[in-house]
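@channel sequence for tomorrow's demo:
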Amino acid sequence: MDYIDLGRRVRKQRTQRGWTQEALAERVNVSTSFVGHVERGTRKASLETLVAIANVLNVSLDYLLSGSMNNSVIGPMPKNLNDQQRSALKEILSTIQENLSEWEKDE
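structure tokens (generated this afternoon):
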């Protein structure tokens, strides 16, 4: 599980709404410091809390977890990539996935 990537997605969605960590924490019914830890990837949220965060941010749970998935819509990650290449490819796929979600909203 890539908790740092999950945290980045939470932070991105929160800041796009103009919310503080405190505002998100109140909506999810957790502490502000816990939201900070989740966003930094230093604490693990329960499945129940992740679902609450996804619902409050109006995003899917698979969006929040997508950086942790070994397989994507294009298939498994090629095995011959080094760590830097693998990370770059995950970032590219993540950006495409985020933009596809935005484009679907515009239609």
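heads up for whoever presents: The mean pLDDT is 83.
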